[in-house]
Q: What sequence folds into this?
């Protein structure tokens, strides 16, 4: 009977991990496994496997630790309180009504304890491995995002530095050509005036293009441009 209950518990653990990993239903999986284990399977094992004179205290402790490990937020405290109440209730009922507890056969206690230690340690080990895997994946993702953000900031800073230099060139061209035009307007021929005007127009178009690029960068960073 103990082996059967252990098998059922392992199936519940596998089902919960399946829901969590492949269907991203972590919250449902964790509530399922904690409630099923601590409120159904463990009390059943407690009364059918020797009560406190068996390996059940190990399973109860594992269930309570399991609740803290895999649940988050207010539901963690709620489920822990319910699981703790179920464990205390089992112990109190077992003490007051010992006839409800099925005693273990002679010589079976050692096997039961060894089996429970092996299974419980494996379950907790799998949980820790899974939690570590999730943590490493999240850490890796955050580091990649930080690296991308750093590269983007560097690119933006480099772009603005280049633009500040590039803007000076057409502005100096516009001011220089305009100064030459005003200075020599009395003596310049029509061709000279047209040449100055073309240079001013070219520099103005270049300046406008640079400013448009800067405005586009600003729109992208503010989320106003797809």
A:
């Amino acid at each position: 009977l103990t082996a059967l209950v252990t098998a059922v518990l392992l199936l519940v653990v596998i089902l919960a991990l399946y829901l969590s990993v492949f269907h991203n239903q972590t919250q449902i999986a964790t509530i399922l496994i904690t409630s099923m284990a601590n409120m159904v399977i463990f009390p059943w094992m407690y009364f059918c496997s020797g009560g406190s004179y068996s390996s059940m205290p190990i399973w109860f402790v594992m269930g309570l630790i399991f609740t803290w490990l895999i649940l988050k937020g207010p539901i963690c405290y709620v489920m822990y309180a319910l699981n703790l109440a179920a464990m205390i209730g089992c112990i109190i009922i077992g003490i007051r009504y010992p006839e409800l507890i099925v005693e273990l056969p002679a010589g079976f206690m050692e096997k039961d304890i060894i089996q429970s230690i092996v299974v419980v340690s494996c379950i907790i080990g799998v949980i820790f491995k899974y939690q570590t895997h999730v943590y490493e994946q999240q850490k890796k993702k955050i580091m990649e995002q930080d690296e991308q953000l750093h590269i983007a900031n560097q690119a933006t800073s480099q772009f603005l530095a280049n633009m500040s230099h590039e803007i000076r060139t057409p502005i100096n061209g516009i001011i220089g050509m305009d100064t030459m035009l005003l200075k020599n307007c009395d003596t310049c021929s029509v061709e000279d005036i047209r040449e100055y005007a073309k240079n001013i127009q070219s520099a103005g178009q270049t300046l406008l293009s640079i400013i448009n690029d800067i405005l586009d960068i600003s729109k992208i960073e503010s989320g106003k441009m797809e």
Summary: The two ends are 63 Å apart (CA to CA). The longest helix spans residues 108-183. The mean pLDDT is 82.
